[in-house]
Amino acid sequence: MPQHPPSDDALGTRLAREFLGGTDPAHLRPDTPHLAGLANLIRAAADDLDGTQHELLRLAEALRDELGRLTSGQNAGILPSGDGILQTRAGRLDGLAIRRVEQMRHLDRLTRLYTRSLPDTERSRAVPTSGPAASPPAHGARPTR
Asked: What does each C-alpha distance from 58 to 3, 66, 91 come to in angstroms?
């Protein structure tokens, strides 16, 4: 996956932090090999999600620009090339959106496993008492649950 620019608003990092009750995944300092492995998986999953989100946004912007040229008449009088650029990009956009949902679910599962694996004394600090990670949302409210 191509490198993406770092961002404080990166989706994967933001969701991991939310799922971990406010703890940034970069600051996880587990004291067992099992937790260390899970922490590494969480960081990798968050980074993969950040990359997918960046790619999805880049493609959506390119598609928006192409549609803007089409609807403004900038390319009026020019026959379509027949290469299906809009169709190809729209299909790729769908694929990225599906991948993003799958990655969000994977990140959610990893963070749940991580917090369940914490000692009781640490678990109460890692899991929020309110918000998305505290209770399951209504059916269909969030794709990650």
From this structure: 13, 13, 14
Residue 26 DSSP symbol: G
pTM for the model: 0.73
- Tell me, what amino acid is at 138? A
Q: What is the pLDDT of residues 14-65, one digit of tens each?
A: 999 999 999 999 999 888 999 999 999 999 999 999 999 999 999 999 888 8
Contacts for 73 with CB less than 8 Å, ≥ 6 apart:
none
Please give the distance of CA 109 from its chain centroid, rounded to a whole number.
13
Distance from C-alpha of 42 to C-alpha of 24, rounded to nearest angstrom: 10
86: helix, coil or strand?
A: helix
Tokens (6 digits) for 141: 């409210």
- Give the C-alpha separation, 134 to 131, whole Å: 6
